[in-house]
Amino acid sequence: MKKDLSKYSDKQLYLLVKNGDTKQKEDAFAELYTRYSRGIYAYCRRILGSEDLAEDIFQETFLSFLKSTEQERDMTNVQAFLLRIARNLCLNMNRQRKTKIFSLEDFDFGIEDNRLERTEISKIIISALDLLPDEQREAVVLQIYYDMSYQDMADFLGLPLSTVRNRVTRGKQFIRQVLAPYFEKNEIKI
Amino acid sequence: MNTYNENSYTDLIYRFMDGDISSVEQNVLFGALAKDSDLQMEFQQAVTIIKGFNADKVVLAPPPSLTNNLFVSAGFNPPMPLNTVAPVGVISRLKKLTTPVISAATGALVTIAIFLGINSNNNGIIQNVSNQGNITMADSKVSVPASAIPVVRTSESKKIRHSSNNSLTLVNENQEVGFNYSRVFSTGEISSNFSTLNYCKNNSQNSTLFNNEELSSFSMPDFNYMNLEVEIKGMTGLAFLPSRTIQPEPWAIMNNIGVGIKYKFNENNRVGIVVGKESLQMYSLNKSGESLNYQYEPNLVWAGACYRYTGNEIYGAVSPYCELTGAYSKFGPVGKTAIGLEYNPENIISMSLGVEGTALAYKFLGDIKTTEKISLVYNIGIHF
After folding, report:
1. Chain B residues with beta carbon closer than 8 angstroms to that of A115
2. A-chain residues within 8 Å CB-CB of B73?
3. What is the tens place of the pLDDT at every residue in A64-97?
4. Which of A141, B37, B137, B278 has the most CB atoms around its CB within 10 Å?
């Protein structure tokens, strides 16, 4: 009878991936994937912007995670570990890519992504997110898509709480300023 | 005491939304919001941005193909193999068929019941009368009173044709409009005291035989007299354009069905009016009007005119057809094109199955947008 792995802790699942037989390893990995794949995918998509790159990094993140289970390691926080792998891969990718200078003329309201549905406003907001400086974008993404508190972000990024808070707030302010003409044009109200 | 400037209020707005604000700061923010309309607008826009992010977050998930690739790369079985994805889609589509199929089946049953009811009504009249009439029925060997026979509305131009095989046919001028009565009547069994029929037998064919009073003593309902067809049809969406992965189609009563009435010019051409209700994927504003959605609109009611061309029979009573529909809905004009096969076994009931393309043009935030759908359509019609 198949065990209900949803009741297992992350650490238990990690140990199953590390030490279990093939079936246990696969099931435990699938459970961890179910728990964290959305967050990691969202992080990669919104940090990198490019769907193709994000998918590559997403895949590499989980494969690196699997590879890491072959090493001796005291795993305390699987979620943070996965995010850290993804973050490092994204940073490397961004370094390899030529720096893109955004201007408001680059701001494309018509960006299409047929595979993922989103509202019109969401698409515009995501476009504005791409205009943010990397630090602010990462802070906003971690908060919005990864449900991190300021304190969690500060711990994860190794930054003071006030710095993290400032990045999130400035990032959202910037997005609002970019979108202000659109809001006024469409008279969007609550 | 703290003093707050414009930037501080902006910070407070975002910290308030993040739940990172003290009660004192909250009071300060609310006090400022009550007085400052610009700050109110900033607050509204900040809320919209957060909602937009959350809407994006909900739909942002690794696609199944990526998940499969990852698992295969890791040496595991793909969790969503392609050969299991398809049946899920099929089941999902079959589930979607339920309502329209039930609707169409109900329409068919009602149609058949009406048809059988009319026939049984006729038979009942014939079988339940006593020997006091003046027409002998060949099948039942009972006589019926003239008043018990259903009456066809007729005119002086209606005639009785007595054919060589002892059958009688009601004709209208030079065109046959009635039935072959050979199953019911035969001259040998017609009572001799029914002078009217004897008169018919002894006179030339197609001559005017009866006045209205006489004719009312033997007549049958004329189904094809009006050349009308009433139809009910079901529509099941197979594909939508633009292609998006969105929330499943919500259930709505009497959805994805249509009814119409058509006039049959001849065997090939019909025109009529149709009314339908179906789901299409559209942009819409939410109730508060601050965010846009792309989702199913299940209450798209349209009404319009249609034309159907039915070709010659290609196999048995099966004929190809194509149908064009132009309609209007509360959102905008609707156009439909369908092709398929029509089965018309008795010239009373027809059934058809085809593929239909639907396009709706609608105005949204100042732009003209279109949405398209390809559907499986199935009609059942009764001809009068």
Report:
1. 63, 245
2. 59, 63
3. 999 988 887 778 889 999 999 999 999 888 887 6
4. B278
In CATH, what number does A1-99 get? 1.10.1740.10
The helix (H) or strand (E) run that includes residue A19 is: helix A10-19
- Name which CATH class applies to A101-190: mainly alpha
Q: Is the pLDDT of residue A156 over 70?
A: yes
pLDDT value of position A58: 94
CB contact under 8 A, B59 and A176: no
Q: What digits encode the pLDDT tens for the residues B6-53? A: 567 888 888 888 887 888 888 888 888 888 888 888 888 888 888 888
Average pLDDT over residues B299-313: 89
| CB burial of residue A189 (10 Å; 0-12, 13-18, 19+) | middle
How large is the average pLDDT for residues A107-111? Answer: 39
What's the CA gap between B21 and B30, in Å, rounded? 12
Nearest to A32 by CA among A9, A57, A59, A54: A9
Q: Give me the mean pLDDT over the A17-34 stretch.
A: 89
Is A183 at the interface with chain B, CB within 8 A? Answer: yes
Q: What is the pLDDT of residue A138?
A: 93
Cβ contact, residue pair B70, A173, below 8 Å:
no
Spell out which residues of chain B touch residue A122, defining contact as CB-CB under 8 Å: 52-53, 55-56
Question: Where in chain A is CATH 1.10.1740.10?
Answer: 1-99
Distance in Å, alpha carbon of B58 to nearest chain A alpha carbon: 9
3-state SS, residue B301? strand
Decide if A59 and B66 are in contact by the 8 Å CB cutoff: yes
Is the bond into B242 cis (omega within 30 degrees of 0)? yes
| CA distance to partner chain A, nearest, from residue B366 (Å) | 10
Cα–Cα distance, B316 to B310 (Å, whole number): 14
Structure tokens belonging to residue B316: 């048995």
Of B11, B48, B62, the CB nearest to A58: B62
Model-level ipTM above the cut of 0.90:
no
pTM of the model as a whole: 0.45
Which residue carries 């891969």 as its tokens? A89
- pLDDT of B155 > 50? The answer is no
Query: How many contacts does A have with B, using Cβ atoms within 8 A?
Result: 133
Instruction: Report pLDDT digits (tens) over B361-384.
Output: 887 766 677 888 899 999 888 887
Q: A99 vs chain B: nearest CA distance in angstroms?
A: 25
Which residue in this structure is represented by tokens 């593929």? B355
- The distance of B291 to chain A (nearest Cα, Å) reads 6
Answer whether A37 sits within 8 Å of B15, measured CB to CB.
no
User: What architecture does CATH give domain B225-383?
Assistant: Beta Barrel (2.40)
Q: A101 or B229, which is more confident?
A: B229
User: Which pLDDT value is given to residue A187?
Assistant: 59
Q: Which residues contact A32 (CB under 8 A, 6 or more apart)?
A: A10, A13, A14, A17, A78, A82
